[in-house]
């Protein structure tokens, strides 16, 4: 079992590929702020399709080359043949990236729609983990789901498939964002019970400091996850009948929630905290400051 930390816990930050130049400028402003705070790593998500995929490869390369940050590049199996996957992994390696988060991905357009495997591709993230591992000296991570993946029939099945990804060679997992710490703790217990050796691998909790109730609700819907009733209640009360007008109140509750969750997770001995930054530095740095880290909020 993990031991509680005596010092500050390591943290990491997730970015996504911006759509346009303004978004890219915002991303780099956030990157430069986080760089000074020495995160354990940063990660760059891989788009569901279209141009953002090229941007992921390009920006992940820039992060690896032009900053001091350890970069984890996400990769999904959606609509890719093995030949394409091999080329993408090669493109990451050429840019000095050896850390890959291997994901199956969701169907483009409707993430909850039917998943169709590419005829020459892979069916599950487990297969992608093996594929990446066979291509070279990569450190591979995978996704985990405190509430269970929405396509897994039961939590036991969900645990079995996560353990299979870890046995296939993944060294750690990062969770989907969640808002009930007990869901995370139960996931950790399930993995340890299913396979103590794999259960010793880090399960890094994904934390989203909420700054907008409407947008977090949309994100949760797309991943079929939930806001616990008490959390929903606190945020809804802050939002009142006009979230736009009460944006600051919602944000303030969101930062409180992320801080409270992080404190409890640290006390429970998590290996690190992974923040979904949405390419902004302010909310995450506020949480880090509230956790006692020596951080100047931008
Ligand atoms: P898998 O592990 O393959 O699981 C998919 C489903 O199949 C699950 O229901 C699982 O229970 C089931 N399953 C697994 N193995 C088997 C088997 N052998 N037999 C039968 N069923 C099986 N999406 C993106 O598009 N880009 C990203 O950058 C991205 N980053 C993410 C980062 C994190 C930290 C997380 C948590 C998710 C991310 N996602 C991303 C979303 C992710 O791609 C989706 O949640 C996707 O639906 C599941 O991906 P997976 O890798 O967990 O798939």
TrEMBL record:
Keywords: Amino-acid biosynthesis, FAD, Flavoprotein, Methionine biosynthesis, NAD, Oxidoreductase. It is an enzyme of class 1 (oxidoreductase). It catalyses: (6S)-5-methyl-5,6,7,8-tetrahydrofolate + NAD(+) = (6R)-5,10-methylene-5,6,7,8-tetrahydrofolate + NADH + H(+). SUPFAM superfamilies: FAD-linked oxidoreductase. The keyword NAD applies. Gene3D superfamilies: 3.20.20.220. Its cofactor is FAD. Pathway: Amino-acid biosynthesis; L-methionine biosynthesis via de novo pathway; One-carbon metabolism; tetrahydrofolate interconversion. Its EC number is 1.5.1.54. It holds the Pfam family MTHFR. The keyword Chaperone does not apply. Belongs to the methylenetetrahydrofolate reductase family. This is Methylenetetrahydrofolate reductase. It comes from Williamsia phyllosphaerae.
